[in-house]
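Final report, Chapter 2: Outcomes

The project's central promise was a pipeline that accepts a single protein chain and returns its three-dimensional structure in a standardized token representation, suitable for archiving and comparison. That pipeline is now operational. To close this chapter, we reproduce one record exactly as it appears in the project archive, with the input sequence first and the structure output second.
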Amino acid sequence: MRRGFFIFSFLACALIIGLGFLNPKAYWAFIVIGPIVVQGMIDAFDRKHSIISNFPLFGRFRYVMEVLRPKIYQYFIESDTDGTPISRIFRSVVYQRAKQDNSSTPFGTQLDVYQPGYEWINHSLSPLPLNSIKVNDLRVQVGGQDCKKPYSASIFNISAMSYGALSKNAIEALNKGAKLGNFAHNTGEGGISPFHLKHGGDLIWQVGTGYFGCRDENGNFSEELFIQNATLPSIKMIEIKLSQGAKPGHGGILPAAKNTPEIAKIRRVKPYTRVDSPSKHTAFDGPEGLLQFVKKLRDLSGGKPIGFKLCFGIPEEFEDICRAMIKLDILPDYISIDGGEGGTGAAPLEFSNSVGMPLRDGLVFAVDLLNNYGLKNKIKVMVGGKILTGFEIIKYMALGADLCYSARGMMLALGCIQALVCNKNECPTGVATQDPQLMHGLNVEDKYKRIRNYHHSTIESVAELLAAAGIRHTSELRRKHIWRRISQTETKSYDQLFPAKSVLKAS
């Protein structure tokens, strides 16, 4: 192929020169053929890419197809049910609800109801009227024995996504949507930006290992800066991030291209440098240290609800935390559980694929252990990890959750097309980028309404499912309400699959 290109180039040039003697206008052909020949020569002597060197010009089509492959697959090959990480059938329902389009489905389910893994909720022969449960009825008060400022939270909220991972337009639209819909918006560990505060939506401030927003010049926790932010009226709850589902035990990553001067100022770091949050906190150590830190933040914030977020790893470590709660009589107001399947931004492949307990397993373990220690009725449990629909909310609440988060669902409602370039600063919809030209396309005044619509419609679907099952509130859901197909001939309820049991509790 390489030799053939040189022969082709020689013959093409010779032909043009020969024609030029007959008609000088033929030399204009060099404008077309010249750049091709020059690029081919450069490719032929390329020592970095063997395919380009061996196949000048034509070898470049391989890289073009690498770029086009995900798009071709998504739009022309995958079915409605087999796309990953989120299939088209679920992406579509988010888009439809966000736009208030018709979200009903024709001709029955596309799911294989006899395939192992299929799940459903059983309805009652005496269902409640569909309009008997209002969206505003489905709220949960967060605040324990030592909380002075409890918060009435929606059962469905915006999960942690930092300004930096998302564009300022995306953050602004999310928060304005949360304000309109009366639900909470988690800031992510990147700190509180002006775009989080501009519209006054309720915020859950996440304090991560980098202490962005309450960080001194050396990267350590600053009480003074914490008080300045924690006492803001928009801050309703505060969440200590121990780990996250996308990269548990690793720490957050902000690519250098996304670390603009504005973001660097908010985080108190150098601009255009990659920012890696530490894998663990420096302000405390161990279970008792964590709980003392919870108490400290509650006092410094004036009594607001304080919780901590984790993706489950070594089970015994969580039991150590439970023991410390009993010993010190210090309880978090809530615990947020992230699944190993979570993630919206940048993470190493091995961590995304192979580290951290999946959400369902982590939730069951946590709820059973908290019940064993008599703590579950004193601590609210929040969950997040690919929660997109009302049934998924119902499913996790039947396992013991009190509230839910969604990150990717809210991104889809903003217009995300699952382009899978969140870590490259090239998001075509302006959601996960800091490129001014790309984020310009995200119209805050249009998208914030979609966030509210998606939230409202999803909660309405929860209300309708509850009514169909004869249940008035998510707090009444139990594991017996959800069923799962185990094989072609066998089904089991969640209380059979996940029976309440004594977990660990070693002496």
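Archive annotation: Residues 444-468 form the longest helix (25 residues).
This record, like all others produced under the grant, will remain available to the consortium after the project formally closes.
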